[in-house]
Amino acid sequence: KYEKMTRAFTKRGKDIPDGLAQRYKESILKQLVDKELLNQEIKKTKVAVDDASLAKEFEDYKKMFRTDDNFQRYLKSSDMSIDQIKDNIRHNLAVQTLLEKQGDLSIGPEDAKAYYEENKKRYEVKEQVRASHILLKVENKEDKKADKAAKKKATEAYKRANKKGADFAALAKELSQGPTASRGGDLSFFTRGRMVPEFEKKAFAMKVGDISKPVKTQFGWHVIKVTDKKEGRQRPMAEVKDSIEKLLKNKKSRKAKAKLLKRLKSEGKVETFLPKAPIAVK
Q: What span, in angstroms and rounded, lies between the C-alpha atoms of 162 and 233?
């Protein structure tokens, strides 16, 4: 576990700071003790996980990687085997069953509704704009001659972009000096607060298909084309109910697990032998 945790250092041939190494070891030790205590309780209370539940959870786990190639790459990069993953899933399912045996973890509709009402802002979908742009850079803001030349080029780009049958993406590839030139100037979707104020103000005021006259920002002169828009909205309770219930159940489970571990540690005998970190001498 320690080797995996410190791989970012060892791959680069760097030393791990003593304080950080100690924190890593203490964290791993705590995880191992907690897991052992839970496994003993699982065995004592005869909690079992059936193969069907394990298979379903494993398939759901694999779906996170979208493709089998991504999953195989993860196995290789993390030094994990399928058996190890299944063992972890089996342990987590057993712990969940154990917690359910110890107390009620269900979440009622009123709990989810109360959480939704208290956290409505979390479920706001902000207005979004998708835009492409042609950027003519001005490296030195104080260079009026360069600014004038860039504005002139931007005005010419604007005129060309407005000609019948003009291909804005092709023009951006040809003329833009920005990092998005290779993809036709596409900036994808963005919300308010993501772009510089002058650019944002213009883009959100435009309609889909509009092409702006040159707009000046700290980067230079932009010709903007709005290609799509998504209106802001409040996601209704029905749409987010399942995710809220899952979130609340996870929160309840974490509290129940902490309470159970506290009891198991107080009732059992735990000895650890990790040396304490040396006290730094000033």
A: 32
CB neighbours of residue 230 within 10 Å? 13
Residue 33, φ and ψ in degrees, nearest 5: -65, -45
Q: Identify the CA nearest to 211 among candidates 178, 179, 171.
A: 171
Q: Look at residue 280 in the predicted model and tell me its pLDDT.
A: 59
What size, in residues, is the chain? 282
The 10s digit of each residue's pLDDT in 16-39 is 998 999 999 999 999 999 999 999
Q: Which amino acid is at 246?
A: K
**61 Cβ partners below 8 Å, 6+ apart?**
85, 89
Share of the chain above pLDDT 90, in %: 86
Q: Using an 8 Å Cβ cutoff, are 47 and 94 in contact? A: yes
Q: Is the whole-model pTM more than 0.90?
A: no
Nearest to 220 by CA among 154, 160, 155, 158: 154
SS (HEC) of the chain: CHHHHCHHHHCCCCCCCHHHHHHHHHHHHHHHHHHHHHHHHHHHCCCCCCHHHHHHHHHHHHHCCCCHHHHHHHHHHHCCCHHHHHHHHHHHHHHHHHHHHHCCCCCCHHHHHHHHHHCHHHHEECCEEEEEEEEEECCCCCCHHHHHHHHHHHHHHHHHHCCCCCCHHHHHHHHCCCCCHHHCCEEEEECCCCCCHHHHHHHHHCCCCCECCCEEECCEEEEEEEEEEECCEECCHHHHHHHHHHHHHHHHHHHHHHHHHHHHHHHCCCCCCCCCCCCCCC
For residue 281, the model assigns a pLDDT of: 55
